[in-house]
Fold this sequence. Notes:
Blueprint: H1 2-18, H2 22-33, H3 38-44, H4 54-88, H5 108-122, E1 126-127, E2 133-135, H6 136-139, E3 178-180, H7 186-194, E4 199-208, E5 220-230, H8 235-250, E6 255-263, E7 266-275, E8 287-295, H9 297-302, E9 311-318, H10 319-327, H11 340-343
Parallel strand pairs: 1-4
Antiparallel strand pairs: 2-3, 4-5, 5-9, 6-7, 7-8, 8-9
Bound molecules: 3,4-dihydroxyphenylalanine.
Amino acid sequence: MQDQLSALVAKATAELSTRKTRPEFEAVKARYVGPNGELTALMKQMGAVPKEQRPAMGKLVNETKARLQVLLDASLAQVEAGELQAQLGPAVDASLPSPDAGPGTYHPLTLVREEMCRILRKVGFTVADGPEVETEFYCFDALNTPISHPARDAQDTFYFPEGARFANISKKTPDEKYLLRTHTSSVQIRTMLKGPPPIRIVSPGRVYRRDTTDATHSANFHQLECLYVGRNVTVRDLKALLDYIFASLLGKDTKTRFRPHYFGYTEPSFEVDLTAQHLPKVKKEWIEIGGCGMVDPTVFEAVGYDPDVWSGYAFGMGLERLAMLLYGIDDIRYFYQNDLRFLKQFA
Ligand code: DAH
């Protein structure tokens, strides 16, 4: 019986080593340890073993059983690994670039921003930058927006706590608060304080307001600001520039109109609407696109320019709104979700 047991282990080892699939494995397993298996049969013979040999034999049978179990476990693990490999396909080198990622594309907001800067560079504007963390002086005071103005309310604006410090953004007065800029108009002040006119800048960038997100609002969005300062600048120049940039971006059938409005930093001030019926999904006849006006003399005084010598215009608009018009996008939230199905459409 001892010989039979060791022959059985040798045979099982050989058979299991060539079995690759689960049914093959199950068949071998049944042949040895199943109800009609070879080991089971040997165990049934235990009764015929003389009494004095029985303990030694029992031990041997148990050892054989344990060895078989080890063999079966190892074989099953191999079968399972094979099944997993079959599901995964051929071996993958995870350090290689993904084969279907393709080249990256520009975000639609980047595309519109760059196109607007290109259009404005053609007529002499240069790109200016400003920080997203601002002080009240640049964001409001120097722009003739007094403390009583609703834009300065904590309900509308993200302020930093009293003790916040930003080493590279200096305050004009010790009591000013830091905030996330509510508009890119702060770059007007930063640019004018750097040097004398003439000035022709375009400044795109991120702005922040305490808005509840919906299809047309986001607490964080992008604007594009323009400032022109020279001699004898008129509303005609402003209107001509706006007509030029919107026709260049959206097509020559695009028209603009001014509606009187109030902004502290321009006088007179207007809201700008445009009509672009040739674009898909444009339903309303006139769509508000931004604010503009002739730079208020108070602003020139705040930056040390003589308002009797210098005149200028300024405007600001939302980049999301422009991109939505241009591409027929009907929900602002698509811009921020990083969904490749959306982003790939702008390749
Ligand atoms: N800052 C205004 C806003 O965020 C937009 C604006 C209006 C910008 C008039 C200007 C301007 O430069 O002259 O709504």
